[in-house]
């Protein structure tokens, strides 16, 4: 890409602007980008101002350094990871705030006519998709600083006809807009939900939960057609047919702005639900029974207040980081672990022989969630006597189960992993066999894992489900030689800069794209 006529290169200015924006999004200075490219800061300055001719090779190098598809045409090229494994990790790493809580709180911000400020929001693709949806219906959002504090200001009236259909279809979380939107419109449409490939997950529990609050839904041609009858209210407690997290959150948001008392039974008491309850409390909605399976919601008719809330840390990311230490036989301190939601996992790991310490408890920024620092040391693990299976909180977290397949592959003996919740997630765990693990699929819900494993490098296409995808990446950290994990968008949906943060502990992971 060269042009000798310096005065007529508007495309260079546009490309320079893209590079500048990508650099800032990554949080780099011009000097840091210059160092990554082995060039000068003045050269970067010229490039960003559109005063520098650029070869395709230089554009490709900039794209790789910034993990940004600047050189692609049309759809952005998929992102891949190259892992040089067999390295020991060391040091400490802090757990970031919860993806699932952040997404729920973004949806819940629609309940508030005032300004909502959320602190240290996980800057991940799932959040980006919800922000795109909110922006498309008139909500103003802006990132305030490098700490990922986020400001949300709703319009006087939402423009639901302008909804970004493509963004909505790329996330399951869109279903959680049913609860807050029923307070805004008597009739509206939402696109079908997407997200992880975990089999067909019915939305019927959501509809059962919301019907007593006046919401009726029909699925027609890829859209949910929603009608709201404001004369309908629950005459008895709402009993959820599934103790699901998002179902409980939808029911909470639907009840929050309804005058009167709503009782929700068989509610999930999981971490993201608790965060939503604390947030609703800041909006003036009194909720009894937080952390139990019966929630009593004292709704309020209108909410118009400026609030500031800090979502708590993510127990699934905590489990991911602890698993990284275990599979690489490393001593690592994982800080800010929400212990209430990790106690079963740590008890099971202790039974398997994990050597670890934990600090005294301290409070998260929301003032309620209990945190600890966990130090993991190299350990000789043995397979547990019983099968490992998830249960609703306070049992072993459903999203943490895949990490136990990875850990079982490092342990001496045979472990049965029973993933009874999802129809086909267990299937993706067999991808570990490409890296040397012995994982036998018994049926769509159960795998048999035999360890210990002598991991070896391989090229693997990223599983389309978030947690199994991360499990494969963590196994690559232990695999000698070079591994490639292709098309890692699904990981970026749920983790913020996971590869870069693992590198700070001593991993060797680089990002690249096909050009």
TrEMBL record:
Name of the top EC class for this enzyme: transferase
Enzyme Commission number(s): 2.5.1.7
Biological pathway: Cell wall biogenesis; peptidoglycan biosynthesis
Keyword tags: Cell cycle, Cell division, Cell shape, Cell wall biogenesis/degradation, Cytoplasm, Peptidoglycan synthesis, Transferase
Transmembrane recorded as keyword: no
Domain HTH cro/C1-type: 19-73
Main subcellular location of this protein, as a coarse class: cytoplasm
PROSITE patterns assigned to the protein according to its UniProt record, in alphabetical order: HTH_CROC1
NADP keyword on record: no
Pfam families, sorted: EPSP_synthase, HTH_3
Catalytic activity as recorded in UniProt: phosphoenolpyruvate + UDP-N-acetyl-alpha-D-glucosamine = UDP-N-acetyl-3-O-(1-carboxyvinyl)-alpha-D-glucosamine + phosphate
GO terms, molecular function: UDP-N-acetylglucosamine 1-carboxyvinyltransferase activity
Localization annotation: Cytoplasm
Cited PANTHER family: UDP-N-ACETYLGLUCOSAMINE 1-CARBOXYVINYLTRANSFERASE
Family per record: Belongs to the EPSP synthase family. MurA subfamily.
NCBIfam families with a match to the protein in the record: PRK09369.1
Task performed by this protein: Cell wall formation. Adds enolpyruvyl to UDP-N-acetylglucosamine.
Protein name: UDP-N-acetylglucosamine 1-carboxyvinyltransferase
Naturally occurring in which organism (per UniProt): Saccharothrix longispora
Biological classification of the source: Bacteria, Bacillati, Actinomycetota, Actinomycetes, Pseudonocardiales
